[in-house]
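Please produce the structure of this protein holding iron/sulfur cluster.
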Amino acid sequence: MKVLLHVCCAPDGTTAFKRLMEKGYEVWGYFHNPNIHPKSEYERRLDSFYKLVRMWNLKYVNAPYDPSKWFERVRGLEDEPEGGKRCEVCIRYNLTMTALKAKELGFDCFATSLTNSPHKNLDMINSIGEDVERETGVTYLKTFFRKKDGFLWSVIRSRELGLYRQDYCGCIFSLKEKIEERGRKVGEGSTGSVFQRES
Ligand code: SF4
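Below is the modeled complex.
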């Protein structure tokens, strides 16, 4: 069975690739993330994905980067908090584009590494995946990668591999939230380092 895996970032990709390959799938990565802003950050995360691909000798399909289409979809949802309606639309877009690419290339199914993130609602992601399956006719693999120490494993492994780990989810709105949070910490006189997160 050939699966096209939407890879949201290289660190989350480690557990996702490993778990799916252990189940016997032929896994191809698809770094479709036009939500990532600015472009320099997108390129940094993409380079990290390529680094993982090279080190683990993985297969992948090139994805376009067209933020204008993403911005069209989230128009009116700019002020939504992280985890709200904007995120639903964002995840739906990336999963739909992954499913359509899987269909075009004759893959059997698709999945996403997003379920490795400790910051995401897994039920929401899997429910969107099932919607996309109904809409596109491409089978969605329901996953819970972060469970059973999946997230912990990805943190340790990506550190060993020297993979870049971002400190905000990806879009300009999540970046603004992160900058405001940093400002509050400076205002409060915090000397602690900024929490490193994955998407
Ligand atoms: S916070 Fe993350 S999931 Fe939500 S819209 Fe922004 S990039 Fe997408």
